[in-house]
Write a structure and sequence with these properties.
Helix content is 44%, strand content 21%. About 6% of the residues have low confidence.
Length: 619
Amino acid sequence: MTLPTALFRHAALAAAVFLLTAAATAAPRNVLRLHLDGAVSEAPSDDGKIMAALFGGKVQNFHGLIEKIGKAAKDPEVAGIVMIIEAPALGFAQTQELHRTLREFRKSGKPVHAYLESASNIPYLLACAADHITLADHGDVWVAGLHAEQSFYKGFFEKIGVVADMMHCGDFKTALEPFTRSAPSAENQEMTNWLLDSLYDQMVKLIAEGRGIGVADAKAAIDTAPHQAAAAARLKLVDAVDSYAGFQQMVEKHYGADVRIVKKYPVEDSFDLDLSNPFAMLQKFSELMEPKEEKSGAGVALIYVEGAIMTGRSSEGGFGGATAGSSTVRHAIESALADDKVKAVVLRVDSPGGSALASDIMWTAATRLAKAKPLIVSMGNVAASGGYYASIAADTIFAEPTTLTGSIGVVGGKLVWKDLWESHVGITTHEYDRGQRAGMMSLNRAWNDEERGAIRKMLDDVYVQFKDRVTTSRGKRIKGELEALAGGRVYTGAQALEIGLVDRLGGLRDAINLAAEKAGLKGDPIVRVLPKKPDPMETLMRLFGEEGKDEWDFIRPGSASAALPARHTARGELTQMLEGVIGARAPAALRSKLAGLRDLITLHTEGVSCVMPMYLTFR
């Protein structure tokens, strides 16, 4: 080999090594795009993707969203996040956790850019987690603080001939006040004001810390809202005012013209349905019909208690909201207890309560589980009354500072419609009874003294049982006399931490990480949502009348986790999707009234309820 040839080869080899090294160390050009708008469900839903694709909605999953951001933070191929924020249907606690998750993402050295056309409270609080906020030309920041409303129906009922015959245990158990009063009680006003004070402080803190301004400046900006684009920039509420095209140019300038905006991440979770190609549609449905391969190995089970707590099976949507059925939740807990692969359990509770009986069934199952495996509770936007009841068996309870919880108390009652039907509508009713109290829950008359005494005793017994469950489960962690802390009082998560109703401030990811740590699991834990969805073929067979697994199957140690009954899949996903398209856009006051009607149904069927004041709406 001649000297020039050897030098040439060495030079070529050095160049190749340099190019490979440069390619390996070159800054990534993939930027994750998050489009935050519409409904955000708590529980994941594969079938919901189909329904959304077919009917034009979008159903995002909160846990999936949090996990996506966490995964992107560790992914060397992802350089940053671009957020397009419109009108996501998130509560304050979800917003707080998502805000914190985005701030943690930024600690990886990757920036977050946000774009807003207009911003009310929730969208703006999310945007405050970003490094840079761009507001549309002629856009506005409408962050004017917190406004709360309660509607009272006593006068309306008097006009139409309806009588509310209601009782409660606890001076602050005000859930039924809208039906019995024309204005809030002193206790109701006191509780509402302390909740607003705590929530407002959290809101101001997020804005001040996110924008790097003082608390006084944040409050001043709130008190002088709304702010048009130029004023918002002057007050440092946003960083730039520009069109979406200008925002795009800014992002490309930051990352380079070859930046790749990634909408589907991670790839295995993406879903495309080409409605113009029937063969492609058939192929996609064929893929979905194949049983999904489950991740092997030990992991953490994630069980949802979402919506009003009812006896029976859970339902996944509807304009009154999802319901958490005692049979479904109990069976999921028992499945986790029996499954050797499940080393710990996280109970995600986002519920205002409901049936006292259903809440106790969940508590009993959770208590049994907690004796054998680590059980951690993650509270969402609300985990109050029956939602708190279902939570207290856990080793550790996490809540966001803005979670609404507590409300340890009981209500009971019914509406009497007789005068409405007879005097205003012209419908008369004649009743027949066998048994002295057979007509106790009739809606045609109020209770007599004997019946009222029986209902009062039932309420008192349930209230004593509720407090006993709290004492048994929380013990010395409660700071102070339980009776003084109970009485139906609702607390924010920050307030609840001070008195020992919860153990830590944090979100779903924190709960999962602690569960994995207590179970001795290393690395990122495998998370299995229970109950499992059945494979599509089982769903199809059940729709044609075939027997399958249900909540009343016996579960033995070592058995696999049970699947959710098929009738809760496609039909439930359709209602969930429709709620996402329509319900999330409905006024909060309307949604709260629908929830109130649902609670009245619970009272009529069970007589006693553990529910918080759901008719208080914040915006």
